[in-house]
Structures are given as C-alpha cells and as structure tokens.
Write a structure and sequence with these properties.
By secondary structure, this protein is an alpha/beta fold. Helices cover 45% and strands 17% of the residues.
Length: 310
Amino acid sequence: MTDALFTLSLNGEAQWVLKRTAGHCRSTLLLWLHGGPGSTLMPFANLSDPPLLRLYDVAHWDQRGSGKSFRPGASSETLTLATFEADLASLLAQARVEWGYTRIVCIGHSWGSLLGLRVCVRYPGAMDAFIGVGVVVDDAASQVMARKYCLREATLRKDVVEHNWLSSLTNEPLVGGARLRLAAGVARFGGVFGSLAMEDLGAAYAASPFKHSSEEPTQQTSVEKLVEALWPSILAYDFVDSVRHANCPLLFIQGELDQATPAELLEEKLEVLPKEGRPGVVRLSGQGHFPFWENAEGFAGHVKKFVESL
C-alpha cells in the first residue's frame, strides 16, 4: 500500500490531502469529507480504511481551517459555505483530471454530508455518487432531540449541573459555545458511540502516522472558529431540497444509536419525497455516529454494494 500526504492548491488555498493506493490500475476513488466543521478524519484513517482499501483507492482531505490545513492567521471571511463548496469542486476536478480516476464517490460524515450534498447540487458531474453518514438534515430539530436525550440521561445519572443547564434552555437553536456544549453532552452521555470507547479512539490517534504535531494545540481553536463562521449556513440548510436536486446517486448510512444526527429524523425528512427514486437508507443496529470506526468491515460491505450498483 502507498500513502501520499501532500498539499494541493484548492480555490487559492493550500490544503492537505492523504491519498492511499493499495492496488494497480484502479479507477474508483473514495473521498472522505470529514465532519465538525473542523473534526478531521485523517488521523483515524487506519480505523476506517483497511477494508475499503481492499476494494478502492481512498483519500482524506483536511478542509480549509481544519487539521493540517489550519492557519492561525486565516481570515474568517473565507470561511463560508460557498467557499467550502468551491474547494471541494476544485479537489474533485484535480482528482479526475490529474489523478486519472473515472469514478469518484464522496463519503460525507456529519457536516461533510451537508457539504457533499450541496456540491452534488451546485456542481453537477463533479462526483459520480455520494454516501452520507451521520447525515445532517435539520440541526434545529436535532438539537431539540439532543436536549431531550441529554436531559433524560442527566436525570438518570443525577448530574445536577447539566440537568439545570439543559432545563434552562428553550427550543431556540443554540450557536457557538452553547452548541458545542450540547454536542459534548451527547457524547458524554453515550449518544455518539455504540461499542467504541474514547480510550480506543485516543490510542488510535496516538499511534496514527497521519497526525501532525501542530494539530493538537490548534484543534479546539479551529473547531470554535469554524462553528462560529458556518453555523448560520448549517441552520439555514434545506436538506430535502438538496436531495431533490442532487445530480448523482445517493445512499445514507445511519447508526441506530446516533443521538447527534438521529436516524428517525432522516427517515422523517425523506418521507416527503416520492418513493420512486428516494435515496436508500441503511440503518445500522448497535452503532452510533461513527459506524465506519465501530464496524469498518460491515460499513465497507455497504459501500461496496452501493458502488457496484452504479
């Protein structure tokens, strides 16, 4: 297997890409679009990629302002949804023309599902198919569900501080630090991982050849800056309209235990679309927001079945 870690100029900004090749003369590339915004998947590539690399080439991209692509002095004015869309379109064009892939399938996780779907609409033909995992469909509605989940868990665990904070909230969407606190609560109360422990994740990060010494002190700063800049666009996002106008085949994969982006909310939103041509949904029992880490083999099987159907 060959791993190549390098920078590309995407829409005028140098950004890091990890390209992984395990076979000869492969024509299909799987491109990961990480979530967050700001939560890179590259350092955990060896958790998700091995079964996928038996089938296809794989690439990870640290998006503008994230991970290795983080620049402390970067202007917040460039952190817009339209800019991220243009960045991805540029990466896809280079992958097709310069790397020689005839078929590119993007796998968008969480925030990456929103970004990927938007590019499906705005840049027809840029990718050949799209897989959304832990799909963002309506953040305001997800927050309401997350608050109910966390309040129930805080009550059961007699966590008075968190219970009081959650009880003080209304159904108005949270932004900034409050939104991050709610997300942290979902994770702490067990609504993100099914079988994977945080200790396992920490060990994987520590052993990763793809982390960078400059990531650790900047990661939190990166996430906070990106959330502040992009959350208005996330709250305004129209998932159903994006699905309706997407210009490529779609598949959505959701963990049954995921309380960050609940499968029930995804299925509810898709119900408004005609049954004929409605995207497929795979609902995975016993798994949470990161099924590609918790059961990489099973996840790869669903990806293979979808790609072979194209």
